[in-house]
């Protein structure tokens, strides 16, 4: 899912056009691209969630993306992160993929089970980010397939009528 790049400015989206069922976005694994991806993702879904839900989405995606940039690609600025999101009655399902190094097992501890609230002073550098991710999302799953990392999770959201 490589994003197309053009030297021509894109026309603004037509507000009367129906929104896509699945939002897809691929971007370079560097801090400025992560910031832009967070902005465009929040802009796409802001009308479908509460302020608190938007904040949770931003925290989770920022933690995931920054971990990929920093650890998956070693701050090289090389590589691509792909994001796909879909809104349904249960929330926002997210798929994040990259070709960086495999996610270490210690990051995955607690996935699928009870995870006690950690004491921040006892966590290794970066450990609190994974706690936040696990605390804010549901159905968190990770796999490595053909040299590609795939992280899937669902952010629970209020029904659309309540979010608006």
UniProtKB/TrEMBL annotation:
Domain Histidine kinase/HSP90-like ATPase: from-to ranges: 27-154
Stretch list, region Disordered: 1-20
Keyword field: ATP-binding, Kinase, Nucleotide-binding, Serine/threonine-protein kinase, Transferase
Organism: Paenirhodobacter huangdaonensis
CDD domains membership: HATPase_RsbW-like
Recorded superkingdom: Bacteria
Descriptive protein name: ATP-binding protein
Keyword ATP-binding: yes
Molecular function terms from GO: ATP binding; protein serine/threonine kinase activity
The keyword Nucleotide-binding appears for this protein: yes
Pfam short name (any one): HATPase_c_2
InterPro entries referenced in this protein's UniProt entry, alphabetically: Anti-sigma-factor_SerPK (IPR050267), HATPase_C_sf (IPR036890), HATPase_dom (IPR003594)
